[in-house]
Write a structure and sequence with these properties.
InterPro entries: GH, GLMA-like_second, Gly_Hdrlase_35_cat, Glycoside_Hdrlase_35. Residues 470-564 form the GLMA-like second domain. This protein is 29% helix and 22% strand. It has 18 helices and 35 strands. Helix 10 (320-332) packs across helix 11 (356-368).
């Protein structure tokens, strides 16, 4: 029996669903003398998991590995893990090999630098230039580098992981690599990897996909004598016919293949049954950013690696682009946010100095489906040597909840309130499900087209441009969220969609789609599903060969017109133009969706709101994000309850309702950056709960008893009164 597992994106400890409540502590930047005290302070703030990188660069010394502090006291990571166990804290261990974490060379040792060892292949971009992170980066496909990684991981496993795996020790989960390979999961399709060994791997991928060079030539209309003659495209060139699209799709598809093989292959170097959690970074804010991200991170293909993500995206409460891209992160799959920025204002954005910013983002992540979050970092430090970091200003980071001197900041006390809520109600929340009546259909080959930006070439061929990310998902999300309609994401290649899980699917179609996916969609509609298909309908398969299965089964063999089609138990609404294009009208799109399902907009609010309902308790969690520029009383109504809540400018709250009564909540009443201070007040029916003065508030009502805790930087005791 496995004592730790991840099921449906939720962490299970000894079979129990658990909210993954963690904080990062870079032990290698601090004095050994501080470790026990800082971990105790994290525990007092209701943190249950300590996460930390194990930097290869820090521990590789004189041709050996020092995990015991023989050469430098804070290399004694064995003792650090022991302290975690003594404090009854769990551990998420992150051995890289590349970690970023603002360390020199991303935590890699200098001996893997291809400039120092000509036997290691450098990673190259599409222009043939070496990719660098302070120094030249090694190609992950290089056999020598990979063998060195294997030795490193085997040492980590033998000395750290295996002896300390739960329940023998505190380690409950692992994370390898970092935000892709080199913090680059969201980079353009031409950014990597054009190294010699990666191109060899690409050719092997083509062999796996096409089997013989004759098959390849027939589909691509080429005359290559062997796969060794085929080179990946590094830029978009003029495409004359549909078959000319295939080489671009091949290279784009290889990106996700490459990523999955790297994670699964290197993961096998660690012989452990612990769950591995990904920490994927968000899409770039560029024209093809969504498509680059969708393409490379086809997470359904990852084996033994579970979805998780990081935040480094901007201030989501004040930046609409950051808000939209962060929401995509939370919706792409269920899993924990492994790096929420609670400590960095100088390196990223000065506004992160203010507690309301990460507080808001944490609530937004959980609203979107996060099954945990990580305070990154929980502790500031100033006790590292130049060998691990010769560039950063001390302390690192500059504004964590716990300072480098061990002082507890206002950020600490606000974090503690939030954590108290998740500690008390996290397992119950993990049982609950968001009401998400809409589904956006992801067909990943459309992202493979979109990331190349080949709209003009397709138009010249008489084909409509393909839209999955830009002028597709991006505008769909805007339409749905403006009406407080939550949505799911579904990879359409996963099989016939469940009607119960996905009652209404929205898809921007394209001129091609593999036969199996056409079959899945047709079967979904015939069984009773509702499909809004916009822009185009496929007439070719993924090899650009004729395939009209969807047209035949849903539209009786004729290209559809703008109309509603009844197909056995289901319906299809088709629109020949792109409903999510630049000239689209959000109001008319919403009206069309409501015509397909009038119950879509049952949630009404002037805030951004998500509702998670418990499947058998009469309980619900209301996640409320106030984006107004003024202090305001927000109204939330879902046809069952009406909640009024007073919030500062751009602030956030969670309210739990059970059996028709207020049950618990956490409210950010102080917004330091906006200089907005509100005494939290919540009204529902005959119930009122309010604080006597501005503060951050946690409350839980148990029968006739109201427990509460507040945090405020103002003098005087805060009273909280509950009346029913």
């Amino acid at each position: 029996m496995s004592h730790t597992a991840i099921k449906d994106g939720v962490f299970h400890l000894d079979g129990k669903k658990t909210f993954f409540l963690s904080a990062d502590y870079p032990y290698y930047r601090d004095s050994v003398d501080n470790w026990a005290d800082r971990i105790e302070q994290l525990k007092s703030a209701h943190i249950r998991v300590v996460s930390f990188y194990v930097p290869w660069r820090h521990h590789a010394v004189n041709g050996g590995i020092d995990f015991e502090g023989a050469t430098l006291p804070n290399r004694n990571v064995k003792r650090f893990i022991e302290i975690c166990a003594e404090k009854e804290m769990y551990v998420l261990l992150k051995p890289g090999p590349f970690i970023h974490a603002e360390t020199d060379y991303g935590g890699l040792p200098d001996f893997v630098n291809p400039d120092n060892d000509s036997g290691i292949d450098p990673m190259l971009n599409g222009e043939g230039a070496k990719r660098t992170w302070h120094h030249t980066l090694p190609a992950p496909t290089d056999p020598k580098f990979s063998s060195l990684v294997k030795i490193w991981f085997e040492q980590v496993n033998e000395q750290l992981i295996r002896p300390n795996t739960y329940p023998r020790g505190p380690i409950v989960s692992l994370q390898i690599l970092n935000e892709g390979v080199y913090s680059d999961a969201q980079h353009p399709v031409t950014e990597y990897d054009y190294s010699v060994t990666s191109i060899d791997a690409f050719r092997n991928f083509l062999v796996e996909k096409y089997k013989t060079i004759d098959n390849y030539n027939e589909l691509h209309r080429t005359t290559a004598r062997s796969f060794a003659e085929i080179n990946p495209p590094s830029e978009l060139k003029e495409i004359q016919h549909e078959a000319g699209v295939l080489i671009y799709l091949d290279w784009a598809e290889y990106q996700s293949y490459y990523m999955e093989k790297l994670y699964s292959g290197w993961g096998e170097y660690i012989d452990s049954d612990l769950p591995y959690i990904l920490n994927l970074n968000p899409p770039h804010d560029r024209a093809q950013g969504y498509d680059d991200w969708f393409n490379r991170l086809e997470i359904e293909k990852f084996t033994n690696q579970y979805y998780g993500y990081t935040n480094w995206i901007g201030v989501v409460s004040h930046d609409e682009s950051a808000f939209n891209r962060y929401l995509l992160l939370t919706k792409r799959g269920r899993g924990p946010n492994l790096e929420e920025n609670w400590g960095f204002s100088k390196l990223y954005d000065y506004r992160y100095k203010y507690t309301a910013i990460p507080f808001f983002q944490t609530i937004m992540a959980v609203a979107g489906g996060a099954s945990g979050y990580n305070v990154y970092t929980g502790v500031s430090t100033d006790q590292w040597d130049d060998g691990i970091d010769s560039m950063q200003e001390k302390p690192y980071p500059d504004c964590s909840p716990i300072t480098e001197k061990g002082e507890l900041t206002p950020k600490y006390y606000a974090m503690k309130l939030l954590n108290r809520f998740f500690e008390e109600f996290g397992s119950d929340l993990m049982e609950s499900r968001a009401y998400s009546p809409l589904t956006w259909g992801i067909y990943n080959r459309y992202a493979q087209v979109g990331c190349w930006g080949m709209e003009d070439d397709l138009t010249k061929m008489g084909r409509k441009p393909i839209h999955l990310g830009r002028n597709g998902f991006d505008r769909f999300q805007t339409v749905s969220r403006k009406s407080n309609i939550d949505y799911k994401l579904l990879n359409l290649a996963s099989g016939v969609p469940s009607i119960d899980e996905h009652p209404l699917i929205v898809l921007t179609g394209g001129f091609f789609m593999e036969a199996a996916v056409q079959q899945y969609l047709a079967e979904y509609v015939r069984m009773g599903g509702k499909l809004l298909l916009t822009h185009d309908v496929p007439v070719l398969d993924e090899n650009m060969l004729p395939c009209t299965l969807l047209i035949d089964r849903l539209f009786a063999g004729a290209h559809p017109k703008d109309d509603t089609y009844k197909v056995e138990k289901g319906i299809v609404v088709y629109r020949d133009h792109n409903l999510f294009g630049e000239e689209s009208d959000p109001t008319s799109v919403l009206e069309l969706l409501l015509g397909m399902d009038k119950d879509l907009s049952s949630l009404k609010s002037d805030a951004q709101v998500w509702v998670h309902r418990h499947p058998w308790k009469n309980a619900a969690y209301y996640f409320i994000l106030g984006l107004d520029e003024q202090e305001k009383t927000y109204r939330v109504s879902d046809g069952k309850y009406e909640i009024l809540i007073d919030l500062p400018k751009k602030s956030s709250a969670i309210v739990r309702v059970e059996d028709g009564k207020l049950s618990a909540g956490v409210v950010k009443g102080i917004h330091e950056f906006e200089e907005s201070y509100v005494a939290p007040a919540i009204r529902m029916g005959h119930e009122t709960l309010e604080a006597s003065s501005p503060c951050d508030l946690f409350f839980a009502i148990h029968g006739n008893t109201t427990a509460y805790e507040t945090a405020s930087d103002r003098e005087g005791e805060v009273q909280v009164i509950y009346e029913a």
